[in-house]
Amino acid sequence: MPQTVEIISTRVLVKHLTLILALLPYSLATRRGSAELGSAFSFSVCSPESIFDAWLKRFPRAYVSERREREHRLRIFSDNLHYVYLHNLRNSSYKLGLNKFADLSNQEFRALYLGETPSFLPLQHGLLQATPISDVKHALGGNTPSSIDWRSAGSVTKVKDQGACGTFWPPKSHL
């Protein structure tokens, strides 16, 4: 048993040393103000929150519920930052960086940009803001038609070639 503990302790020590050595260039570069992560992404301190703050300056966001949403996005950002960091430690044929999508989870990104059904997205986090139908009916004074011909309203256009995207969201209304 002591041998197992020694092996585990050695592994933990190696992981910590690897992390320290990997962060050393960033730490030294930040003293000169020239650290980069990804495409010319500069930051001055290596904590995930300070990197997130610098990222927000480059990719401004207006979160619906400022404090709660920011905390949620910071957690996702930190996970993505960790993923980027671990990937870049490997001797891969490409490097990852932080871009405008760094505060999105994989599921959110796929739903918003790859056409997957976004029904699982948390509406309270501001990506998809929903207005309850009852609010719409109330705003219209309760005079909502039972159906709408979107063609006669000029809201439907001819089918367009969307190229390799392959996504199509048909207009849908449930009033």
UniProtKB/TrEMBL annotation:
Organism: Adiantum capillus-veneris
Residue span(s) of domain Cathepsin propeptide inhibitor: 52-109
GO molecular function: cysteine-type peptidase activity
InterPro entries, A to Z: Papain-like_cys_pep_sf (IPR038765), Peptidase_C1A (IPR013128), Peptidase_C1A_C (IPR000668), Prot_inhib_I29 (IPR013201)
GO biological process terms held by the UniProt record: proteolysis
PANTHER family: CYSTEINE PROTEASE FAMILY C1-RELATED (PTHR12411)
Family label: Belongs to the peptidase C1 family.
Name of protein: Cathepsin propeptide inhibitor domain-containing protein
